[in-house]
Amino acid sequence: MKPQLKEHLAITKREWNGLVVLSALIALTLTLPYLHNLVYKDDTVVNINEFNKAVAELEKANLPGKDIAPAKLNKFNPNTASTADWQKMGLTAKQAATIKNYVSKGGRFRKAEDLQKIYGLTKIDYVRLAPFMIIPDHKPAVVEVIEINTADSATLTRIQGVGPAFAKRIIYYRQRLGGFVSKEQLKEVFGLDELKYDEIKGQVKVNPRLIRRLDINTITFDKLRLMPYLNYKQVNAVIEYRNQHGSYTSVDDLKNIAIIDEQILRKIEPYLIFK
Fold it and tell me: Which GO terms fall under molecular function for this chain's record (predicted)?
């Protein structure tokens, strides 16, 4: 039994040498990490407070939005601030230009909330700037009221909210119309919307007796074409009806023209005379 067991457990010299080499490799593999730490020691100590501070600064620098954020905002008047002033307060060049364009055309900031009307200005910009806005309480003793049928361009610009561009548009429309019958007609001027009208309506008045009237029985096609309430086909119909049926005696005759409705007749009636 013993000779058989001994024979079973016996190994050759070659096998023994292989076993020794394998053991040596295993031992070397297990000791390499320790040898590396002994040779290359890392004496660096991380200061966790400094690390957290550096991370916070990095996150702040990478926040989306403005390229340059002012460290401190000062009180300012939005009606007099320059383009450079707006940019120093953190707005982009495009936003600053939009604001200055608004002011140059007669727009005014009467309260901080008006800043929200500016196209391209974000809610964050408004919340950041509003507390620093100072708008002087300017209340003139006497509000000048302009008669818009006789005012020239320079006079119209004295209306708060009307700049040179709006003044030219008002005069151009007044010439086509023949004058204003009521100041509500200002809302028909290109670009003068309900908001702008509400801003200026208390500063204007109209004398309807100053309008230029049109003799419907003698007016030519080209001159009647200037009337903004009539389109090309309607002007042509007025002239053709007159040619076929003779002179108009009253506005009721115009009701016979199918393409001119009651609403249009009410608009043009104040400008017509029948001789």
Answer: DNA binding
